[in-house]
């Protein structure tokens, strides 16, 4: 039961920070988050062709 205590308080701060549903910081989730941002920041292949 002691193990259940620490993860609970860690969830609230992460939830609003990422503005996502109450989910734990998973490796796949974190890897997808930066990838999505990179895609938006980086120019799409179509833009390159247009140039």
From TrEMBL:
<protein>
    <submittedName>
        <fullName>Formin-like protein</fullName>
    </submittedName>
</protein>
<feature type="region of interest" description="Disordered">
    <location>
        <begin position="1"/>
        <end position="32"/>
    </location>
</feature>
<feature type="compositionally biased region" description="Pro residues">
    <location>
        <begin position="1"/>
        <end position="28"/>
    </location>
</feature>
């Amino acid at each position: 039961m002691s193990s259940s205590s620490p993860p609970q308080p860690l969830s609230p701060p992460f939830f609003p920070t990422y503005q996502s549903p109450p989910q734990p910081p998973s490796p796949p989730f974190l890897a997808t988050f930066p990838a999505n941002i990179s895609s938006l920041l980086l120019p799409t292949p179509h833009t390159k062709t247009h140039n």
